[in-house]
Amino acid sequence: MFARLFFKNSLENNLVFLLDVDGYQMAPSRAKDYPAEYILASAMAAAINYPLWRASALAQSGFRVASSSFPPSLSPYVYAFAPPYKGMVATVFGMTWARAAIFWGSDRGKELLSSSKYNVPTLVATIIPPLVVSTGVQCINMPIVRAAITLQDPQSNLSSVWSALKHIHKQGGVPSLWHGTSAGILKTVPKYCTAVLVKDWMENVLPAVDPSSPTADSDRLWRSATKSACAGVAGAALTNPLDVIRNEMFKTNQPLFDTVKNLWRTEGSAFLTRGVGKNMIAVAIPVGCTIFFTDALIDYTSSSRERKGQNRYPISILAKIDVKRCCAKGRSG
Fold first, then answer.
1. Which of helix, strand or coil describes residue 19?
2. Distances (CA, A) of 242 to 107, 238, 279, 326
3. pTM of the complete model
């Protein structure tokens, strides 16, 4: 019989098996048991950060915002926060389901791969799920993304996502709705793979929170905020050039390689950092917020269930156990 074990942080992302140390039973999965928290966290992050996304889309697409009242550096932000909010509902919906699917799928996929009989290495189990899920999400979401970005042009007379979709279809047929998918995948997949990898790595290297500390709740939030910020910034910084290429493809309807050649000819290497400041805000903040809100909501729900006695496996008597060592110890004892 194992001695009673305690683990210090109830929000670890890399939990594969949680075993009741008295009965050797499987504990609930973080992703499997909290899907609603992933969706709600993504919705909150998408709604809060919609204006920042607009500002980033304006900058990276090269759309010009004319304003005599504000300097050029501030004009995109003023425009982004001011009505009309064209395409807001569709954009928020698209970002909500996409990020929820990616982060839930990444965590759940890692759990399944890590617990499989094939002894999948941790790095592979971490990278494969966001790679697969984010690729699928990008392909499904592309028409909405393209229509929403087209709407942000101040010179556009289009009033809704539906009208933008019809306009794009009229110009190039059904394939035009997925124009820019290649650049979108090149941008989205590395971004989320990087964010998930950094998130899980930070989860392992950050000091665990002592549950007996009087500041345990605030310590847990600060720990999650640190992890979330690092993951968001890493993903945004890596993929800014691909954001620029994708948005330029939307604007010019040129293929990927022609777009890159034209950008290099007209702007040189400067296009790699075009809109990077706004992109760091528009990408790093919502990705970081999604991770942070997910942690906070799962922590809140788990604590509520434990207080009500609904948790079959109270957090205080669970321990993260290396499965191979556990099985080996069981066989030897």
1. strand
2. 25, 9, 11, 45
3. 0.74
Give residue for tokens 């997910």.
294
Q: How far apart are the first and last CA of the chain?
A: 9
DSSP bridge pairs for 320: 18
Return the axis-axis angle of helices 181-205 and 216-252, rounded to nearest 10°. 170
Strand partners, 26: 19
Q: What whole-number distance in Å separates Cα of residue 263 and Cα of residue 271?
A: 7
- Which helix (H) or strand (E) covers residue 142, if one does? helix 122-151
Q: Which residue carries 């702007």 as its tokens?
A: 267
Please name the residues in contact with 253: beta carbons below 8 A apart, sequence gap of 6 or more. 171, 172, 176, 179
CA dihedral 79, 80, 86, 89 (to 10 degrees): -160
For 247, the 3-state DSSP assignment is helix
Tens-digit pLDDT profile for the chain (333 aa)? 333 333 334 434 444 344 333 333 333 467 888 999 999 999 999 998 888 888 877 776 777 776 657 666 677 777 777 788 888 899 999 999 999 999 999 999 999 998 888 888 988 999 999 999 999 999 999 999 889 988 888 888 888 889 999 999 998 899 889 988 887 788 788 889 999 999 999 988 998 888 888 888 889 999 999 999 999 988 887 777 877 887 788 778 788 888 888 889 888 888 887 877 777 777 788 899 999 999 999 989 988 888 877 554 444 433 444 444 444 444 445
Q: With contact defined as beta carbons under 8 Å apart, do 42 and 99 qualify?
A: yes
For residues 134 and 189, is the Cβ–Cβ distance under 8 A? yes
